[in-house]
Amino acid sequence: MLYHKLIKHSTSKEWTIFIHGAGGSSKVWFKQIRPFSERFNVLLLDLRGHGKSKNIKSPTNYSFEMIANDVIEVLKQNNIDKAHFIGVSLGSIVINQIQVSHPEMVKSMVFSGAITRLNIKSRLLLRIGRILNPFLPYMALYSLFAQIMMPKKNHKQSRILFINEAKKLMTHEFNRWFQLTARLAKHLNYLQDRKIDVHGLYVMGSEDHLFLGPAKDIVKRNKNLILEIVPNCGHVVNVEQSEVFNEVSIAFIDKVSLN
Q: Is the pTM of this model over 0.90?
């Protein structure tokens, strides 16, 4: 089972589940732990091959269905029937997969730097990555991706955080995750073309040049989704503008919980 940590609230019955992205770990949520645990029950976890879950044996081929099932297993083990899911970057895809496969367990969704569809730039980036992957050490490729996704000075903290966490990955684990990108566009279309009945909040940085545009399109087409654009912010909003992210996310969860 995945490594996970529970922080239980003395009175709240609401659960918030935090899911990091590829190459990260539960440590990317260090600016969320205190404000969220003061209001809700909190579950932090490390996905298969990441952080303290890096020694879990994995099949050769990863799938988002398998990753989502890992998360669901943790919830069932801890008798959590329904929760608010909070994800960053590729973690947003895991949450959308859970919403498709286990909709009864999803009370709401909150995304920081959500990946919804691939634009021309992100498709080109992944294509170049697949060409370079056999020749470059995985950290060189990951660092290149991080620099392209988070290029500005004000993105430095989140860029360094993600790179440092990725150093803990084994090469074969990185390659298994990277193999998912070959079918990422098709899987994103599958997830986003389905009806979304649950309420969702997209918190996106105004400088997220790869993923803000597609998020706008998704939100525009679905009345259950809300978009919050944070000025002067890149891909990892929960790190770069943590106070804004925490405020709007907690207010959103409070509103959903009352309904």
A: yes
